[in-house]
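ok posting inputs for the FE2/S2 (inorganic) cluster job
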Amino acid sequence: MSTYDARFRIWRGDSDGGDLRDFTVEVHDGEVVLDIVHRLQATQAPDLAVRWNCKAGKCGSCSAEINGRPRLLCMTRMSVFDPSETISITPLRAFPVIRDLVTDVSFNYTKAREIPAFVPPNDVPAGAYRMHQVDVDRSQEFRKCIECFLCQDTCHVVRDHEENKPAFAGPRFLMRVAELDMHPLDAARQTGLDRKRTAQEEHGLGYCNITKCCTEVCPEGIRITDNALIPLKERVVDRKYDPLVWLGSKIPRRGKPT
Ligand code: SF4
Ligand code: F3S
Ligand code: FES
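and the output
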């Protein structure tokens, strides 16, 4: 087994501020960045805060920024770096720091709660739901999400613009709206909920200018922009400019104010 000493610059601090500290840590063959962080805790910095659970790219906990790029610590191999380079590890930039590499990602849970859940159809008995395979495949891609929030962290709409956070759900949750809007069994539309309208007016779809940075950092390889955000934008536009929809909106409905 070969080993070498690698140089790291790791952000240490808390909500009151902090700075980058230099460390030299031994690296073994086949290791990932999280292994190095654990060795650092074991040998030099026992109080270094880092969040992790599965070490297998499935829990979404170990999100941080490596050389400024949002990544999972447990899925980033040391072999992708030149042994002579200094590797920086910093907390997710779009969220408030709690301590060291741990950030407060509760923004995402707030946004998740703002999206009304799937409504099962009440005219189909449970167990008798049927969908075309093409519809299953489309939402299954979005279901691979591990909620690491790397896409949320990288999107420029909130990354450098804290002021946009109240109005913008971010790619992960706009993808959720898109998934529900394309779900053929979602009965929310029969209750009067128009997910296309809420995407635009409540979840900030219009802020997205399809830069695709979210797709580039997604560790699950979900094509967030091409398969969720762009189709959702197209459906919003179709609905807005469809002459039949326009005409329908002008016809007064019984029991509704005109
Ligand atoms: Fe992470 Fe991808 Fe889910 Fe975004 S869509 S939270 S990047 S797994
Ligand atoms: Fe942001 Fe992704 Fe749109 S990075 S701007 S949500 S394509
Ligand atoms: Fe679970 Fe990295 S520790 S995704």
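notes: Residues 3-103 form a domain with the Ubiquitin-like (UB roll) fold (CATH 3.10.20.30). The first helix runs from residue 33 to 43.
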